[in-house]
Amino acid sequence: MRIIAAAGLLALGMMVSQSARADILPVPPFKGNDTGGIIAYSMATQVDARQVAADHCARYGKVAKFLAVQGYEGGYISFACRWVPYGAAEKPIRTLY
Contact 86/96 with Cβ under 8 angstroms? Predict the structure, then answer.
């Protein structure tokens, strides 16, 4: 029984000492899914972030809405992919009186 407890403590100690580090598991400059995503600020200074987000959301038949910008090195630009309401591309009905 003591051997199992010792092995458990050893395994726990190894897991704690091997915590996730940024240099081992780098975060990609762009990450997203059908609900939205993030763009690294360093990538946004090199490419058009609006176009990257619009192209990503268009794969799901949605439009991009930007939520927040962390304007410093290491920050992110976040966006959400939203459904387009029916008839949004049509002109509104206008009366003359």
Answer: no
**Distance between CA atoms of residues 44 and 41, nearest Å:** 5
Burial classification of residue 76, based on how many CB atoms lie within 10 Å of its CB (0-12 exposed, 13-18 middle, 19 or more buried): buried
Average pLDDT for 5-20? 55
DSSP string, 37-81: EEEEHHHHTTS-HHHHHHHHHHTTT-EEEEEEE--STT-EEEEEE
Helix (H) or strand (E) holding 15: helix 2-17
Contact 81, 38 (CB under 8 A): no
pTM score over 0.70: no
Q: Does residue 95 have a pLDDT over 90?
A: no
Opening angle at CA 25, ends 57 and 27, nearest 5: 30
At residue 96, the pLDDT reads 54
